[in-house]
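Quick sanity check, DRBM domain-containing protein:
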Amino acid sequence: MLADRDQRYRMRLNNWVQTYPLHVRPMLQWDSSEALHDSSGNTYFVICVYISDHLYGLGQHHSKRRAREIAAREAIHCLAREGYSVA
């Protein structure tokens, strides 16, 4: 279930980028941290979604897949606030 949501959000972002002609296509980048540890010893991951060098989504969670889903969902919401339709 979680993998499905993660994939759906990433596919929506990838499909949105593909709607643009190649010469004006926004660049979609995923940046992920190695496993990080807080002062209590808990492990977590930070995932960032950049579109044309602007941060659009940030996800932090102990599961890398969940962090990626949070970042993608946040990027989609941010794009929607700017008037883009990411179906």
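Posting the structure with no commentary besides this: The mean pLDDT is 90.
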